[in-house]
Amino acid sequence: MEHDFEEIYSKYYQSIYRYLLTITKNSYISEEIAQETFYKALKNIKKYNPKYNILTWLCSIAKNTYYTMYKKEKVIEDIDDDIKDAEKDIISKIIDSETNEELLKIVHSLEEPYKEVLTLRVYGELSFKQIANIFNKTESWARVTFYRSKGKIKEILNEKEL
Fold it and tell me: Of 15, 24, 90, which Cα lies nearest the Cα of 55?
């Protein structure tokens, strides 16, 4: 099982780190919590039920570790609605590979600049400031464009569910 855990770590570390980064907006804290997540996972690997997605299980550990750290140390003063939306709307959908494929198709169908801004932010992991510089626009423009692109994706997903 130790060898299997090394594979799990190398396969999922970056996904867990990026997931935490969307929540914490801090690379140092995300790295610390990611390490703690895999430590807890290793300690509790016997409790893992293989009928569930391993990434979902790891994300759950990561989120709980973050909230525990948040409560104990008050590292982050405020969890805004954008973080909750990001967790509910995008990260939870990325976990499911079929949904991920569908999500990629939807992203690809978006008009410019929505497609490019969303791709740079979510998949390229660029800051709003970096995106603004690429387009020679303001940081506010990058934020608004990103949130509008998320809204367009929500609309398309809602239409598909009807």
Answer: 15
Query: What's the rounded Cα separation, in Å, for the pair 86 and 88?
Result: 6
H helix or E strand, kind and range, residue 100: helix 97-109
CATH architecture of 2-73: Orthogonal Bundle (1.10)
Pinpoint the alpha helices (H) of the chain: 2-24, 27-43, 54-73, 81-86, 92-95, 97-109, 114-118, 128-135, 139-161
Q: What is the pLDDT of residue 35?
A: 92
Low-confidence ranges of the chain (pLDDT < 50): 1-3, 75-80, 82, 94-95
Own/partner contacts of 137-142, CB < 8 Å, gap of 24 or more, are 142/117
Q: Where are the domains of the chain?
A: 2-73, 96-161
Residues 93 and 99: beta-carbon distance below 8 Å: yes
Cα 61 to Cα 63: distance, rounded to the nearest angstrom: 6
Q: What does the angle CA 155 – CA 84 – CA 162 come to, to the nearest 5 degrees?
A: 25
